[in-house]
Amino acid sequence: MTHAAATHPTSMGLDSRKMAFWAFIGSECLLFGSLISTYLVYKGRSVVGPYPHEILNIPFTSFSTFDLLMSSLMMVLALAAVQRGDMKWAKIWLFATAFLGLIFLAGQVYEFASFVHEGLTLQTNLFACTFYVLTGTHGAHVTVGVLWLLTLWVRALQGKLGPAHAITVEISGLYWHFVDVVWIVIFTVVYLIQ
Amino acid sequence: MSAQHEGSAMTEPAQAREHAHPNVGTYLRVAAVLVILTVLEVGVFYVPAFRPILVPVLLVLSACKFALVVLFYMHLKMDSPFFSFLFGAPLLLATGVLVALLLLFYGTLTLRGAGGAGGAGG
To answer: What is the DSSP track for A20-76?
Structure first.
């Protein structure tokens, strides 16, 4: 019995794993909704600096946003390649997606390090606390996504990933795109609306 | 048991919906629009003339990007409406909580300010 055969369609005729994953993504909406709400509620209430407009680097974060959007494109190209059985390109696109994710994470580490260097630590003020928790939680999700993608890439290299496993790639893609849409909101709410 | 057998267990309309994904050309066009919208977002941020309407413009642009990724890259446009419900209901709830909290906190602050001013005057 193959790995894909373990899937059971629901009474609605939908893939049970995909349905469960959409429910998980729904719960993630509530998690990030609460974190974004907390950031906005405490926005502008810091009594000591550094303040957002003094420290946030828009050009640098714009590049990170572009990077994550392009990683989403790579992800759908990987899925399309797996679905048509083109495993050579599937490996390339999967690795490219994970690599762009790593670049995003490196950018976040650089950003956090530069903020700490400028005196903005988790305990500095309300902005720092809510900012680090929100973007740090997102970064943790990106890290999980990168590890998941690299696992799929290794399985593809071992010849254990094929068109029969397209649903596995599709579900990992759902996670990756969700991480992307969360960043779309964070980029606007945290970085651009100051 | 193969994946094909597994697929045949699905009802035909559901199966057709799950497999009717966009082609590579659509994915590339969506990516181009996403990049253009991001450039517009950053551009609007730096243009002083947009200051009075900056927040609504940024929120609309962000919502467009969000919708494009969810509809085309996450395939909600083509997939079962039940998946849209599983995603949309919690999203609506999260948005409602966000708006309620903002009204509660900022509304309370405004009332306190007005009350304080009134108290000082009385």
So the answer is: HHHHHHHHHHHHHHHHHHHHHHTTT--SSS--HHHH--HHHHHHHHHHHHHHHHHHH
Other CB atoms within a 10 A radius of the CB of residue A171 amount to 18
Contact present, A173 and A148 (Cβ < 8 Å): no
Give CATH for domain A64-194.
1.20.120.80
**Can you read off the two tokens belonging to residue B18?**
């799950």
Global confidence as pTM? 0.87
- φ, ψ for residue B70, nearest 5 deg: -65, -40
CB A43 within 8 A of CB A193: no
Whether A20 contacts chain B with CB within 8 A: no
DSSP string across B94-111: HHHHHHHHHHHHHHHHHH
> B113 to chain A, minimum CA–CA distance in Å?
15
B117 to chain A, minimum CA–CA distance in Å? 20
Taking CA B47 as the corner, what is the angle to CA B42 and CA B48, rounded to the nearest 5 degrees?
135
Q: What is the ipTM of this complex?
A: 0.91
B9–A9 C-beta distance less than 8 A: yes
State the DSSP string of A93-138: HHHHHHHHHHHHHHHHHHHHHHHHHTT--TTT-HHHHHHHHHHHHH
| CA pair distance A148, A103, nearest whole angstrom | 16
Predicted local confidence at residue A177, as pLDDT: 97
Q: How far apart are CA B109 and CA B103, in angstroms?
A: 10
Kindly state whether B95 is in contact with chain A, defined as any CB-CB distance less than 8 angstroms: yes
Report the distance separating Cα A119 and Cα A89, nearest Å: 45
Which residues of chain A register pLDDT less than 70? 1-9
Read off the tokens for A170. 């599709």
pLDDT digits (tens, 9 = 90+) for A154-183: 999 999 999 999 999 999 999 999 999 999
Nearest to A84 by CA among A74, A73, A76: A76
